[in-house]
Specification:
Elements lengths: L1 H8 L15 H50 L6 H37 L5 H70 L1 E8 H6 L3 E4 L5 E4 L9 E4 L5 E6 L2 E3 L8 E5 L5 E6 L2 H4 L5 E6 L1
Parallel strand pairs: 1-9
Antiparallel strand pairs: 1-4, 2-3, 5-8, 6-9, 7-8
Helix pairs in contact: 2-3, 3-4
């Protein structure tokens, strides 16, 4: 821009150089009248030209700064939503600056036209104006490219956002399914580890149809497969170590491996309790325990 201003300073002495060869007196008078108008307005025209040139130069510097910021943000690879917004704002700011430059150059062209009508040599000024218009057109193309890149980045951001949203949905779905499966597993686990036991007199167990007599002259008690479990005590077999009996004569009616349990007897021969020594083996064949006493 310093070169532009220096070149324009060289134009100032030429503003007063008017071609006066080969013209009639009447034409000379008309030219003198026009020139007098120009000369009378010369200071304000020149001042306006310098103001316009400075404004264009400042805007171009600001545009360059914003372009550098945009390029830095675009070079980050994955652009966040906030960065995309900032880039959009910078591009809009550049558009406004370019619009201001166009309006300023239009005012310069008006002043150049005024000088041209007065036969003032303004070739260098016209050249500067043409250069400025070329710069603005070049910036317009750069902004179009930046907008295209930004649109591509925005699509990438939207795609990533959709992918993240989809992943979050999948995670939520999996979490729900996991919770459901855990609930089912827990339920199944509880079912598998649920046992039932009852301790009652032989007469009581027969009356409730929990057992029936079998074998020679009905001396053996068998568990009724169609029994009701209403009278039984439900337990978690993982936590059941023993059951209290407290009877003189007791027998385990249900089938359990003999090595998995033992009766605990008192000194006077009372069946105090049934002690479960191996829970897994004890409940392996049946989750129902029936103890009968007389």
């Amino acid at each position: 821009m310093k070169k532009i201003l220096f070149s324009f300073v060289l134009l100032i002495p030429l503003f007063s150089c008017v071609n006066k060869q080969g013209v009639s007196r009447e034409q000379m008078q008309q030219e003198n009248d026009s020139l007098n108008v120009v000369i009378s307005q010369k200071d304000s025209v020149i001042n306006d030209i310098f103001v316009s040139l400075n404004a264009v130069a400042e805007n171009l510097n600001t545009i360059k700064t914003r372009e550098n910021l945009i390029n830095e943000n675009m070079a980050q690879g994955e652009v966040s939503k906030s960065t995309t917004t900032q880039i959009s704002e910078d591009i809009e700011a550049i558009n406004r600056l370019l619009l201001e430059n166009r309006e300023t150059i239009a005012r310069l062209e008006q002043n150049a036209e005024l000088l041209r009508k007065a036969n003032v040599k303004i070739g260098s000024l016209e050249k500067l104006i043409a250069q400025m218009n070329t710069q603005i057109e070049s910036k317009d193309q750069e902004i179009k490219v930046l907008k295209q890149h930004l649109a591509e980045k925005d699509v990438q951001v939207q795609t990533l956002t959709e992918q993240v949203s989809g992943l979050n949905t999948q995670v939520e779905t999996l979490s729900t399914e996991k919770a459901s499966l855990e609930g089912e597993v827990k339920t199944q686990d509880n079912i598998l580890n649920t046992g039932y036991y009852i301790i009652g007199s032989e007469k009581e167990l027969l009356a409730k149809e929990i057992v029936y007599k079998s074998g020679f002259i009905g001396r053996t008690l068998k568990i009724n497969e169609n029994r009701s479990l209403d009278s039984f005590t439900q337990v978690d077999i993982r936590n059941l170590d023993h059951v209290m009996i407290g009877q003189k004569k007791a027998a385990l009616v249900s089938s359990h491996p003999t090595e998995s349990y033992e009766f605990v007897m008192s000194d006077d021969g009372i069946f105090e309790s049934l002690q479960i020594k191996d829970k897994n083996k004890f409940w392996e064949y049946s989750k129902v325990m029936v103890i009968s006493y007389k």
